[in-house]
């Protein structure tokens, strides 16, 4: 006899792995100490190389609390202490955990053969990066065989405004998100860094029109980079592909020649992850 025949309603089935109060996000269902620890960890990921005193001051927590958090993170490999200058940094384990997320998205796995072909086609180092706050996080790289090369190992962070991939992603950002980044200080790393917001906006407009960005020694003297965005199923830029190398091999007259295979590789990765290429403005 089923529940309908008996006049009894069947109990609602709870999704496996979810507690009864899954949708209740009030304070009673958060672990305050863990929340504070994550606040310290997230701040550390954005501001590495600070002392205990500085971290405590910036996060608004007591030095004793922050110290316990850091030691706990250090024990898990998520934080590292430099005794030389008494500073704290994100640990290697953080990248391992992040890499597992990237494997879930299949972005890195799908990109590897494309990066290899891009390196072979251009003779320069091919890179894959994603946005992390105000920086590009490099998540994969295929190095050139040349003795002089660009080197951005996975886990390297570079400011968005002074990176080929960063500018390619900034050019595709929603206006409100872009302005939030431009409202902050834009550090000048070289004489060519676009640290003035209006100057950077003008460059981003050109990037949207042509479909690729050009980093002309804006972060590292003697190095150039050409990049293009990768889009997801919603047409949003979720990553960028680039080739980077010394000015001796990537001359000012070579940019368009390098741009063509970079754009093609970015389009190939977009299709590989089921994405939709956004029409150029």
TrEMBL record:
GO molecular function: DNA binding; DNA-binding transcription factor activity
Matching InterPro entries: GAF-like_dom_sf, HTH_MetabolicPath_Reg, TransRegBhcR, Tscrpt_reg_IclR_C, Tscrpt_reg_IclR_N, WH-like_DNA-bd_sf, WH_DNA-bd_sf
Short name of any one Pfam family annotated for the protein: HTH_IclR
Annotated region (Disordered), positions in chain: 1-25
The protein, known as: IclR family transcriptional regulator
Taxonomy of the source species: Bacteria, Pseudomonadati, Pseudomonadota, Alphaproteobacteria, Hyphomicrobiales
Domain IclR-ED, first and last residues per copy: 93-275
UniProt keyword annotations, A-Z: DNA-binding, Transcription, Transcription regulation
Residue ranges constituting the HTH iclR-type domain according to the UniProt record: 31-92
A GO BP entry: negative regulation of DNA-templated transcription
Transcription regulation in keyword set: yes
